[in-house]
Amino acid sequence: MPSSHAGIPLLHPDYKPGVPVFRIEDPAIPSGEIYHFSTQSGLLYEVQFGRKRDNYFGFVINFGVLNESFENEYAMTHENEAFRIIATVIEIVRRFFLQHPLTEYFEFNGEFRETEKNKPSSVRTRLFYRTASRVVHPAYWKVEIQGNRVIVIRKQTPHG
């Protein structure tokens, strides 16, 4: 399961998901930006990569539940599925990076629960930060938390 292209690895060389990932539906076009997966409890997730306006080589990662019953609501993840969801999102980011090897920047914003509105970052953002800090290759990538955003930045970019 390589996680590098053109010699720049994204993931730590020792990274292996500790749990099985869910079956991923890749985009019809390999370089596409929208992926889907379903959990065992029936939640359908979409993971989408949107380009940053100020950095063509930067992407914002948006993911969430698509089921209509959760429209405009915070979808509660079944506790026993949370780690598989995270492992699946990491696998999707890895696959995306293989198709977009010049990527210099990933950004993630976690959705706030109603009880978190007065905190600087959401539980999801902090969980994504801890996970990203463990799995990305530290020689090539830097992980930061800025408010409610997790930023993964390539340390040396081919563009300056």
Structural write-up:
It is a single chain. This protein has 2 helices and 9 strands, in the order ββββββαβαββ. It is α+β, with helices and mostly antiparallel strands. It starts with a strand and ends in a 6-residue tail after the last strand. It is globular, with a radius of gyration of 15 Å. It has one domain: Aminopeptidase, CATH 3.40.630.
Features of this protein?
Aminopeptidase; alpha+beta; single chain; 160 residues; 9 strands; seven-stranded mixed β-sheet; two-stranded antiparallel ribbon
Gist of the model:
The protein has 160 residues and is α+β, with helices and mostly antiparallel strands.
Secondary structure elements and their pairing?
Blueprint: E1 4-5, E2 8-9, E3 24-25, E4 34-38, E5 44-52, E6 55-65, H1 82-99, E7 105-109, H2 123-135, E8 141-146, E9 149-154
Parallel strand pairs: 6-7
Antiparallel strand pairs: 1-2, 3-4, 4-5, 5-6, 7-9, 8-9
How large is the radius of gyration? 15 Å
What is the CATH topology assignment? Aminopeptidase
Mean pLDDT: 85
The neighbouring-strand order within the major sheet is 3-4-5-6-7-9-8
Can you give the helix content as a percent range? Answer: 10-25%
Helices and strands, in order, run as EEEEEEHEHEE
Beta fraction = 25-35%
Using the coordinates above, name the CATH class. Alpha Beta
| Number of DSSP-assigned strands | 9
Biggest beta sheet summary: 7 strands, mixed
Helix tally equals 2
